[in-house]
Amino acid sequence: TPRQEAIREIALSKHQLNRVDFKTTHIKELYGKNVFNEETQRARLPKPIFKALQKTIKQGAPLDPTVADAVASAMKDWAFEKGATHYTHLFQPMTGITAEKHDSFLAPDGVGGAIAEFSGKELIKGEPDASSFPSGGLRATFEARGYTAWDPTSPAYIMENPNGSTLVIPTAFLSWTGEALDKKTPLLKSMDALSVQAVRVLKLFGKTPDRVITTVGPEQEYFLIDKSFYYQRPDLLYCGRTLFGAPPPKGQELEDQYFGTIPERVLAYMAEVEAELFKLGVPVKTRHNEVAPSQYEIAPIFENSNLATDHQNLTQEILRKTADKYGLVCLLHEKPFAGINGSGKHNNWSMSTDTENLLEPGHTPHENAQFLVFTAAVLRAVTRYSKILRLAIASAHNDHRLGANEAPPAIISVFLGDQLNDIIEQIEKGGAKTSKQGGMFQTGVSVLPQLPKEAGDRNRTSPFAFTGNKFEFRAVGSSANISGANTVLNTIVAESLDYVATELEKIVAGGKTLTDAIQALLPGLIKESKKVIFNGNGYSAEWHAEAAKRGLPNLKNTVDALPVIIEAETIALFEKYKVYTAGELKSRYNILSEAYVKAIVIEGKTAVMMAKTMILPAALKYQKDVADSVASARAAGVANPPGVETLSSLVTAINALIKGLHTLEHAVGHEAEGEPFDHAKYARDSIIPALVATREAADTLEGIVGDDLWPLPKYREMLFIK
Ligand code: ADP
Ligand code: MG
């Protein structure tokens, strides 16, 4: 059978595992090799141009248009030397993935030859036809004009290809009327909004940085399975996740996978992924096995949110692309396999100036007023706007993960850890006098060194955890573009810092010292935020009950979360900080609703196709085999032939499958009335239950039908045969 063939192929296949030789190419030489980075800019740009460009990159100064021509010309020469034939404006339309259209550098010279051209105008602005990207009603399709605008703060790079490389220019994507059609523009705006407010707060502390940047270090989880299995699973191919599949005899219960030895083929893959990312200047740092079988993680060192987001998108692309070279497929879906852990993306987030991380508590955080003010502002933001944060991670895919006892629940709470929690409680009661110290950790073994102990333990069950000197937003989905989560995070914290700055300024203007002002303000902030602080087990049923008692929102799925986008409070918030207009929010409401519907409908159609043309025929064939065997045994005089029970459970399961299939087919074929959101509701309430019922019957059948007849690679094969 094709399944057996796939397994044989995997057993015999010899993949080339030494494609990158780190003895001849040291990682230090690879790093940034294909990036038009500061070093390259310095070497290739006239000094005044270099300075002007750096001022934009580092201080957010408006870009002088005359700079563009000089930059473009230097970029072109550099790209040519690297073997580039084309350039592209890369943007992030609201599909969530990146988009690119390639243009050749060549232009006819008018006398039969050609010259290489790349002007400042071409660097700054592109004009892709916007009509085929989702706009959520922002503009009619006849007004198709969209512009891509160069983002000088994210350096251009070369995407290598043996068939001619491409100079890639990160850009924002806007409609002709100036509305953001992408995910980068709002992120940049949210960074600006936060910067303005954070600078105001720092000014009270006597500091005058030009700007405050937000930083992000996103950890990416993913699965790798053999390509031979992948192609035999239409569900993986079309939906990114298995719609059918009985649990394997062994899952993740032995806990032997997490941090386990990395298989050779996977390690070779990881090394090449890293080498490719190094060349692109993505500072990848960590790799390891994750909890589920065949699940892994890659994490970079943090960067400013904009760059981190671009690099995160690149990481997803390189992870996908490189897998092919090793006969593997990288699954970035949040829940490729039922019954074992899904994949997330821990979004580590902080704020910093050129010189300090504003969430760095130091040794005695209770005395660190500045740290406490910024932390309290974050707490207030998460408390007030927890529904918007929840919304920022909502997708049909992520619905499978959140609250499924492996990822944080859909209830947004904050984990502070012992030390910070203690300080917050002291402040609430009137003033913080001490910081609990970690001290030294006694190993109890004389040959082992004494270790310094952290002041607080970790908590893996919290959606939003303070982890030493940053917050970790753990509920983000593995396939998500992290710009959404960070745009929200930056904006809600900007609002909070605005409030804090305004209050402190008022009290100080009234003649009080800053210390008095802070002492007057913080206890109230903390009282308000108390309800989101939870240091216990976020996966437990008790927490769900407790959270309900505290009045914390629990938006269980995407459809529950979607209406938050168009609530008056949300619109007021984003308009005030000029991150989204009401129209842009409405468009995102429609786009997210549509994306949800499309994902579920494709799953429904795929499940119908598979159940009808693959699973049912196998089950009927087996039914015939068993029935024949029973009949012939009877004919031969066996009074109670074995197989009768099998036959009866087969018939029951086949009937259940057919029933589920009918309901599913009807649900998928039915058109809901109304707005995209109404369709989303319909998909959740009608298609998903039918999908679940169909799967249940199919998975039961998988446990009965003869193995040689089963058409789909099984969990036990996909997850364990490497
Ligand atoms: P863990 O898995 O224990 O949470 P990792 O080391 O895998 O830890 O990931 C931590 C991530 O947090 C890294 O990407 C790291 O660069 C990032 N990080 C550290 N400091 C900051 C910061 N100030 N701002 C944003 N991210 C940070
Ligand atoms: Mg982490």
UniProtKB/TrEMBL annotation:
Any one Pfam family match given in the protein's UniProt record, by short name: GSIII_N
Q: Which PROSITE patterns match?
A: GLNA_ATP, GS_BETA_GRASP, GS_CATALYTIC
Q: Which residues form the signal peptide?
A: none
The GS catalytic domain, residue ranges: 183-615
List, for all copies, the residue spans of the domain called GS beta-grasp.
Answer: 85-178
SMART domains (UniProt xref): Gln-synt_C
Task: Identify its protein family.
Answer: Belongs to the glutamine synthetase family.
In its UniProt entry, what is this protein called? Glutamine synthetase III
> Known SUPFAM superfamilies for this protein?
Glutamine synthetase/guanido kinase
Lineage here is: Bacteria, Pseudomonadati, Planctomycetota, Phycisphaerae, Tepidisphaerales
GO biological process annotations for this chain's record? Answer: glutamine biosynthetic process
Q: What Gene Ontology terms describe what this protein does at the molecular function level?
A: glutamine synthetase activity
